[in-house]
Task: structure prediction
Amino acid sequence: MLQQYKHILVAIDGSYEAELAFRKAVEVAKRNNGELFLIHVVDTRAFQNVSSFDSAMVEQVTDTAKKTMEQYVATAKKNGLDNVNYAIEYGAPKVIIAKEIPKEHNIDLIMIGATGLNAVERLLIGSVTEYVTRTAICDVLVVRTDLDNKPALNQAGKKASIQAE
Result:
């Protein structure tokens, strides 16, 4: 039986790996006549150590995220995908991406970049991707390659360039 994914979630965190996952998810959604749902999670742990925390900081982060998400929606539509939505959530990215959003939006596939963190961040807070692959309530595809299925990092260890529209 051929699996047709109709509700695809992509976690957008501004990383190169998330960009690759988004590009591939657009193509999967187009092939399956499906919906693409983009999620950006503002990790509230980042604000816990800020002594002079104020709402202006949250508003600035939210405004930036909204502009970024609208650009992703426009790119998906420009590439022929009509059914694209997004949300900006606040809290722990791991649980929101793996469980909450899939349940709320009937997601049947999560496409996520291999990692958006550096080695120290992964050691301290753990990889969101690793958690999602272990605990998600639906299928998960970890994207490690570009649109030509070439490794995302070239042999010199540098990020390969993403193809132009």
User: Anything to note?
Assistant: Residues 14 and 116 are 8 Å apart (CA to CA). Residues 55-78 form the longest helix (24 residues).
